[in-house]
Design goal:
By secondary structure, the protein is of the alpha+beta class. It contains 13 helices and twelve strands. The protein folds into three domains: 170 residues, Alpha-Beta Plaits; 51 residues, 5' to 3' exonuclease, C-terminal subdomain (DNA polymerase, domain 1), CATH 1.10.150.20; 101 residues, DNA polymerase, Y-family, little finger domain (Dna Ligase, domain 1), CATH 3.30.1490.
Length: 359
Amino acid sequence: MSDTPVRKIIHIDMDAFFASVEQRDDPGLRGKPVAVGYAGPRGVVAAASYEARAFGVRSALPSVTAMRRCAELIFVPPRFEVYRAVSAQIHAIFADYTELIQPLSLDEAYLDVTANRRGIDTAWATAKEIRARIFEETGLTASAGISYNKFLAKLASDHRKPNGQFAVTPDMGEAWVEGLPVAKFHGVGPVTADKMKRLGIETGADLKAKPRQFLAANFGSSADWYYGIARGIDERPVDPNRERKSSGSETTFDRDLTEPAEIEAGVLRMADDVAAWCESRSMFGRTVTVKAKFADFRQVTRSRTRTQPWREADQLRRASVDLIRSLYPLTKGIRLVGVIVSNFEREVDISMPLLELER
């Protein structure tokens, strides 16, 4: 028998963070469909309120598409300085409960509360108290997932959104994963989910049934990760010092594109998405890379590095378009484009007895 205590991990995820801040600060927006971003032919939705999501409006959606889905949609320009200030308030609350905080973005983080700094009876009660304090001090709601590892905690935080929490205990973790669609798994994107579906993998149970050799043959270096999470296993620690090395966004087109204007519109949407991420986290990189996948699945990248970080969205947009244009003239259609920023220079850092996991 191991004497190592079961870890107690909480994943806190703010509810529609950017849009909720705007609705908090402008009572006229409350209860209405709100998109943070810019309207116009080349605009992109950075965030959407729950009222807007009911119409199918999501982040990274082109603004013109969002307006078609919801004619009453209200666009609000982003105020990243305000979001950063609110995020700092939230992280200060986290610090009252643990030193082991791993921010994923301005609006979500992992907390390892295995060491019970405040002497609260359970991890469930700890998450509840944190959420109550966030609401009291910021006027915003948060959802929480509680479990014995990061993978399950992140899945659990989605289970009672918005303004709820859910726990996955050690005795239920493996069976709970079996019943979930793999498309919901963190680390399984749309392209991988489609590939898994073609291989007959649609649920956690389907993934668990595949032997390790099968996963290695089809998913290479990701095989061990998929093998583990299908069994509710994730040994990754909550790492307060983890630095993100890059940020990227990509899209797969409905059809193979050959027209430069259509391809470049896709690149611009991805550049805007990445620029918003960089701005929201005050993390700016010196290298921009454009990725393109052709109809025959051949993939190419083009990069540009400079001495100063790409801080302005317009600069990033121009550089991304210049890089995709270096692939012209095309001999095959393009099915996917992506934009990645790397070589970050971070400007602003947002920085006992054991708990029982059960309620």
